[in-house]
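About this split. The held-out portion is used to measure sequence recovery: a designer receives only the structure tokens and must propose an amino acid at every position. Recovery is the fraction of positions where the proposal matches the reference. Here is one held-out target exactly as it appears in the evaluation file.
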């Protein structure tokens, strides 16, 4: 089993305390340096774009009850340069880089090739940039960049069209990242068909918007451009590992026809979906598929205080998990749904170090890769680092190898 660390850098109020941006970044770099010392594999960093606080003042507030910013990292490439300069072994990952905003897939392909050119200038550098990518968590981050319905058909089919945009962007991004020279004319047309929709009624609404009962609707390219090639040309792609954040099986397969691309899955993903994904990727991954090619988030609520019994440690850890999730759901939805809190706590890893060993053995395959989330709804830098150390010293040795 392999163990990484996930960092949310979420600046929200916890028990009446809201750290400044400076404190948030200082705590983050403290924790990254410790993760490196403790030999965690990858520092996965959440990515967010545009202020949640400012977005609340608009006409369509997404999380109106959330106080603060759901994440402060807007560019993993800048973060990676700094992290690599202050650490020795740990790799850096994005969870997840949005390739639709900030210029779209062409701009992101060029930015990453530039990063790789600079990162690879040291011939001794072997650490990879673990680039997770997708379309972003919130639509408001994409709208300023033109990711909106362009006509009545796209408006009627928007949930499906968004997936088509990611499919188009993924092909552009990966082919240019690979070093191909291409134009939008080199890409297959995106279409809408009855099989794209959950019900016949949904498809009929789209046909009505189109104006006739056709079986296929061709979408105009979202990105239209003459032949381009992104620079620098001389980069070492061995310093890059790609992972896509999508449950769409067809897109997972399509991506792997271009470059080797792993898959993200959350801790709450149903087990049957996890196993179906592994089976599919064993067949379609461009290379030898390993379970570690699908990183999975795992919430960690651990207590290892001296002088407490195992039962007392478990009780304190569960209390922390309960409080964290209650605060989170109040912030996200403005109300407290006890069933959601109960389910979330049940999906987390909570207890003493011994409890966590047992829970991980029961819940995960021995060859899985976990992104351990220690900082969820927690600004106590010392506690987070204590838990990172306790996990590395008292949990991980029982599960590695």
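Reference sequence for scoring:
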């Amino acid at each position: 089993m392999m163990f990484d660390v996930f960092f949310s850098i979420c600046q929200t109020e916890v028990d009446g305390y809201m750290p400044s941006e400076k404190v948030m970044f200082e705590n983050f770099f403290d924790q990254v340096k410790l993760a490196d010392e403790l030999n965690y594999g990858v520092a996965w960093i959440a990515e967010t774009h545009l202020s949640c606080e400012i977005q609340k003042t608009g006409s369509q507030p997404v999380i109106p009850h959330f106080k603060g910013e759901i994440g402060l990292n807007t560019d993993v490439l800048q973060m990676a340069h700094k992290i690599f300069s202050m650490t020795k072994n740990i790799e850096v990952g994005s969870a997840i880089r949005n390739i639709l905003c900030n210029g779209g897939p062409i701009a992101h392909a060029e930015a990453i090739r530039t990063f790789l050119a600079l990162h690879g200038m040291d011939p001794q550098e072997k650490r990879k940039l673990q680039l997770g990518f997708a379309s972003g968590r919130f639509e408001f981050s994409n709208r300023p960049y033109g990711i909106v319905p362009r006509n009545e058909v796209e408006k009627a089919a928007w949930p499906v069209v968004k997936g088509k945009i990611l499919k188009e962007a993924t092909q552009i991004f990966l082919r240019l990242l690979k070093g191909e020279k291409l134009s939008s004319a080199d890409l297959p047309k995106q279409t809408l068909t009855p099989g794209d929709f959950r019900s016949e009624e949904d498809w009929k609404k789209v046909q009505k918007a189109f104006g006739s009962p056709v079986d296929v609707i061709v979408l105009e390219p979202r990105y239209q451009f003459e032949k381009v090639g992104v620079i620098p040309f001389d980069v070492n792609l061995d310093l890059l590992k790609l992972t896509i954040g999508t449950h769409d099986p067809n897109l997972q397969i399509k991506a792997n026809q271009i470059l080797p691309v792993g898959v993200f899955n959350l801790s709450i993903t149903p087990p049957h979906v996890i196993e179906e994904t592994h089976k599919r990727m064993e067949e379609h991954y461009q290379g030898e598929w390993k379970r570690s090619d699908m990183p999975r988030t795992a919430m960690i609520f651990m207590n290892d205080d001296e002088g407490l019994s195992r039962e007392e440690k478990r009780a304190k850890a569960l209390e922390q998990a309960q409080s964290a999730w209650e605060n989170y759901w109040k912030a996200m939805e403005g109300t407290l749904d006890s069933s959601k809190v109960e389910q979330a706590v049940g999906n987390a890893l909570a207890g003493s170090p011994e409890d966590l060993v047992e829970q991980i053995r029961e819940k995960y395959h021995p060859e899985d890769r976990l992104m351990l989330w220690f900082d969820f709804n927690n600004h106590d830098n010392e506690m987070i680092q204590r838990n990172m150390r306790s996990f590395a010293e008292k949990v991980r040795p029982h599960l590695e190898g």
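Annotator remark: The chain has a mean pLDDT of 94.
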